[in-house]
Amino acid sequence: MLLKQLLFAIFLLWGLQTLLTKGIKRPMRIITIVNQKGGTGKTTTAINLGVALANKGKRVLLIDFDPQASLTYSLGIKDANPTIADVMLNGKTRLTSTLTPTQEGPQVVPGSLTLADVELSLSTKIGRENILKNRLDGLEGFDFVFIDSPPSLSMLTVNALNASHEVLIPLQMEILSLQGLTQLLNTIVEVKEVLNKGLKITGIIPSMYDNRRNLSREILQTLKANTKERIFNTVIRECVKIAEAPSFAKSVLSYAPGSNGAVDFIDLAKEFLKGR
Ligand SMILES: Nc1ncnc2c1ncn2[C@@H]1O[C@H](COP(=O)(O)OP(=O)(O)O)[C@@H](O)[C@H]1O
Ligand SMILES: [Mg+2]
C-alpha cells in the first residue's frame, strides 16, 4: 500500500516537473495564407501578422511558397541556399537546413524562382499533392507556421492547402474580389473533400481598406451578408508605410511603429489569438 502511494507521489512530482520545465505543449498551427488573385495582401499579412505574433512571444515560422519569393526579399534575405524549392525537389534536403532567422523575429524558410520548376515537375509526380505535407512532417518548435502561397490555384497552392490545418484569406474590398472568393471557397471545399478533411477556414481579412471610399464599406457589408465564413473585425487599412517597409527589409511594426498599418496588424494578431 505504502509502495503504491510512494510510486504515485513520484509520478505526480515527475509530471509536475515536466510541466514546469516544458510548459503545456500546444499543437503547432500550420496556416496557409491564400487568395488566387495577386496583390491582395498575402505576403504583407504573412510578414506583419507573423511579426506581431512573434512580438507577443510566439514562435513563428514563415514559409515562402511563391515563385516570386517576395516574402524572402521583403525580409532582406538574399542568395538563400537551400530554399523550399530544393526541399520540394529533393527529399534529402531537410526543411530544417533552410531555416533562416530574421531581425524581425520570425524564422523563414526562403523561397526562390526555382519554385516555378517545382510546379512543373509536380505535374508528373505520383502523390504530387502530398509533397509539402510530407516535408513538413516532424517539424516542431513553432507555435505558428504561415505558408505564403502564390497568386493562383496551382499545384503549389494545393500542396500548401493539403499541408495546413487552417487558411486565412486576405481580401481586397473590390467587386471582383467577391467573384474570386466564390471560386477560392470552392477549391477549398474540393481540397477538404479529397485530401484534407480537417482543413478549416479561420477567417477572411479585409485588406487595403480605404476608409474614405464608400465602396470599401459597401463591399464589406455585401460580403458580411453573403458569406457564412468568419470575417475579422479588424480591417487592414491602406497605409503607405506598409508598402514602404519591405524596401528596408522590415515589417511595418518596426519600420513605422504607431502607423495605421502597425496598429492594424497588432489588433489582427490579438483578434486572431482570441479565436472566434
Ligand atoms: N494595407 C496596405 N496599404 C498599402 N499598401 C499595401 C497594403 N497591403 C499591401 N500593400 C502593398 O500592395 C502590394 C501587394 O501586396 P502583397 O502583400 O505583396 O500581395 P500578394 O502577396 O497577395 O500578392 C505590395 O506592394 C504591398 O506592399
Ligand atoms: Mg505575395
Description:
With 276 residues, the protein is α/β, with parallel strands linked by helices. The protein has one domain (26-271): P-loop containing nucleotide triphosphate hydrolases (Rossmann fold, 3-Layer(aba) Sandwich), CATH 3.40.50. The protein is built from 12 helices and 7 strands. It has a 7-stranded mixed sheet, with helices on both faces. The termini are far apart. The structure holds adenosine-5'-diphosphate and magnesium ion (MG). Adenosine-5'-diphosphate (ADP) binds at residues 35, 38-44, 70, 151, 207-208, 236, 238-239, 242-243.
Topology, pairings included?
Blueprint (H helix, E strand, L loop, with lengths): L1 H21 L6 E5 L8 H14 L4 E5 L5 H5 L9 H6 L10 E2 L5 E3 L5 H8 L8 H6 L7 E5 L6 H8 L3 E7 L2 H20 L5 E8 L6 H13 L13 H5 L7 H4 L4 H15 L2
Parallel strand pairs: 1-5, 1-6, 2-4, 2-5, 6-7
Antiparallel strand pairs: 3-4
Helix pairs in contact: 2-12
The structure holds adenosine-5'-diphosphate and magnesium ion.
The site of adenosine-5'-diphosphate (ADP) has 17 residues, from helix 2 and helix 10.
What would a concise description of this structure say?
With 276 residues, this protein is α/β, with parallel strands linked by helices. The chain has helices at 2-22, 42-55, 70-74, 84-89, 115-122, 131-136, 155-162, 175-194, 214-226, 240-244, 252-255, 260-274, and strands at 29-33, 60-64, 100-101, 107-109, 144-148, 166-172, 200-207.
